[in-house]
# Entry
Amino acid sequence: METLFARSVEDASRLLKLTEDDRKLFERVEAACDELVLPEFERYVERKFNEKIPEIIKKHKLMGIPISKKYGGDGARPLVHALTLERFGQLGLGVITYVDVHQALGSLTIQEWGNEEQKQRYLTKAATGEVVLAYALTEPEAGSDPSALKTTYKKDGGNYYVSGSKYLISNGSVANKLIVFALPEGQQKGVTAFLVDKDASGFSVEMRMEEKMGLFTSDTSLLALDNVKVAKEDVLGEEGKGLSVAYAALLNGRMGIASGCLGVMEDCINQVKERVTSRTQFGKPIGKHQLIQRHIATMVANLESSRWLVYQVALKKEEYDNNRGNLEMRTEVDRVSAVAKYVSSRAAYNTADAAVQCFGGFGYSILSPVTKHLLDTRVARIYEGTDEIMELKIASTVLGREFEAYK
Ligand SMILES: Cc1cc2nc3c(=O)[nH]c(=O)nc-3n(C[C@H](O)[C@H](O)[C@H](O)COP(=O)(O)OP(=O)(O)OC[C@H]3O[C@@H](n4cnc5c(N)ncnc54)[C@H](O)[C@@H]3O)c2cc1C
# Structure
């Protein structure tokens, strides 16, 4: 097992008793990472979506890690799930985006908000990878403020008809089921979440958004919905309660992104270690120069300080999972997941920047093993809640809800 990750597993085992199943799961993740590392780098250089991500994750039966065993998943506890994402994160945020969107924003949302029939219909298939999920909230005019959605729905007979566009949607053109949020036509309130089929008439991928500064190996798409028919059985959660569904999904998603950022930092440290012990300047390995050691110390401090925040989220999330309906616990998970996502994404970006610095001129080449992380991690400070929205959320937990500056 990769060394820094092995240390994380050891630390986790001090926090909770890892089972034989958990250890076998880590072995499967390790095997998938070994297979993915090369194609992931190749697709990054080619600036292409990495089609090997779904193929290899599915092959190692890793699509359903957090899904309950009852629906065919591994039923991994939140800390175990976080650890698997930490390991995938070493490959970069392209892999994490695919996995986190499918597992945290998609599967866990259906598990939490779906009725039994929806879970039997979709969750069992999400666990095998037959169903791949996306989460479509953002629109050209509604990003940080989802109450400004322009996508609308109308009811006719027993069905719903959804129209609008969804912007910057990860897995948008590779998913076959999408959680789409829309407002009732002519109204400003009452957002509803729908499970939309990619083959439904009126649904189309307008564009694969490939002109990104990084995250090339992840699919990001612009979607159009023109009177897309959705059966009433495919309303997720109660009609009109879609924003609660959307926010709950992000709570799970943020833990995933933060976990992935830990892996990014681990890979940066590993790559820098190799480079600074082999590259010689002024007659000695550059790792013997004290200012290079300062970069390494900063990278390690970034990793360690973020790591415990993520584990804290996982433990509190499990406590809340066992006490659903406890609002105080939910608020606490919301708070710590915002802190963990905010700190880890900045830490990962700064760590990747320090890694590029240690690589010198080669670090400025897209072919160095760390430049990808610098390009990819920038997005972690934007998606699933920007730095600023996280700051406002965190500040309001101290000042009180009446000071919430982002609603
Ligand atoms: C690669 C990628 C993948 C994505 N994947 C998905 C996905 O799968 N599903 C999905 O639904 N969305 C996805 N997104 C969208 C992402 O969640 C949004 O980009 C993000 O929420 C910000 O919204 P916005 O881009 O409209 O920026 P805006 O909301 O327009 O914000 C612009 C700037 O203004 C700041 N700002 C806004 N409001 C306030 C305020 N009240 N106080 C202070 N500052 C404020 C923001 O922090 C930001 O700095 C993705 C984005 C990217 C780049």
In short: The longest strand covers residues 159-170.
